[in-house]
Amino acid sequence: MVVLTVSVSNSGEAQDKAPEANYDEAKVPKYVLPELLKTNDGKAVTSAADWTKVRRAEVLQLVQDNIFGTLPPNDIKLRTKVRSDVKDAINGLAHRRELTVYFTDDDKGPQMDLLVYTPVSAKGKVPAFLGYNFNGNHAVEKDPRLHITESWVRNDKEHGIDKNLATEASRGSESSRWAVEKIVSAGYGLITIYYGDVDPDFDDGFKNGIHAIFEKPGQPRASNAGGSISAWAWGLSRALDVLESDAEIDAKKVAVFGHSRLGKTSLWAGATDERFAMVISNNSGCGGAALSKREFGERVGRINRSFPHWFCLNHRKYNENEQALPVDHHMLIALAAPRPVYVASAVEDQWADPKGEYLGLYHAGPVFELFGKKPLPTDVMPDLNQPVMTDVAYHIRSGKHDVTDYDWEQYIKFANSHLR
């Protein structure tokens, strides 16, 4: 059994002003998780058909109404334009394209740029990983040919981001998180998008990004109206729409991936869009894979006060009141079944509650079993750097809140078993 160490300074989820948090397992309250395999009217769910026809929709509604809120409507017509096309990226290993996707008829309106890598050695369409980045597509590698994002970006002096504008200094600033060479060398595509293209990550009353298309000014928001996480999940589905007609990507074999707040997003995207063939959550913590009722590390009240634009208004009912939640995050993970799910933690990232992330995946297991899939074998966490892979997978690695080559090596190995 892995021994967890405490570190509260490196998760990147604005914990600098956090109130005192619990990092003692002995202080985790006794809690009862909501029933996965019992319908709202009390009937037992005993088959995959019961889940698919009845219970899944109920669980999806619970997660939507109490955590993330509704997704934006999809009554738009997408347009795409090739921004660049490079045949010799990543030391000649990758074909790299920049595709601009417009959400309206206005070229200056809301839009997102897809950065698409595929192996030059591929013969035919390839399976792929799709996920957001934090600093702009140009941050994935230092190549000066990449367009620098013009969207709002969080200030980061270390990476040359000032006045919420990306600069030349931010080129390649996230390259350590994107093992592009490993991915394409393994025969996979990679598609990444700057998440701020879809919805800039600050609270402005939902006036920017894709909210500018759908929100009606001056009207109060519904209590279950979606926040930024629902907007980002919507954007991932629109990217998949584009990939369905791509000549190099096999859109039926796309794994949705996310780290931290974007790991929460990948879980919600996988729940709301069953076209995603695999779901990967990296250090997603509170609001992601971790069980809220454990009240460990970051809690519901803390995340809602720090990031009031991420979740729906109903989620605030459970600030310092997690035991009243009619849903928990094992139910979010279960919505991906029977598709393969990978949840990953880092031992120094106690703010994200690694044990809670593991238990979230473990307690989703009964739904996977309905489909004849193998869940996690035990509720005891594996040892450090010892991944467990069945039809779901989990690892806790050395280090902090981040995405590393080690993480990608495990995701590729898992994908080899399920997407090939």
Essential attributes:
420 residues; 10 strands; alpha/beta; ten-stranded mixed beta sheet
Description:
With 420 residues, this protein is of the alpha/beta class. The protein has two domains: 15-68 and 284-401, no CATH class; 79-252, no CATH class. Helix content is 26%, strand content 17%. It is built from twelve helices and ten strands. The protein has helices at residues 48-68, 89-92, 180-185, 195-198, 211-214, 228-243, 261-272, 300-306, 329-334, 354-363, 365-370, 405-418, and strands at 79-88, 94-102, 111-119, 126-133, 189-194, 249-259, 278-282, 341-346, 388-389, 392-397. It has a ten-stranded mixed beta sheet with strand order 1-2-3-5-4-6-7-8-10-9, with helices on both faces. A hairpin with an 8-residue loop joins strand 2 (94-102) and strand 3 (111-119). Helix 6 (228-243) crosses helix 7. The protein starts with 47 loop residues before the first helix and ends with a helix. Residues 1-18 have low confidence and may be disordered.
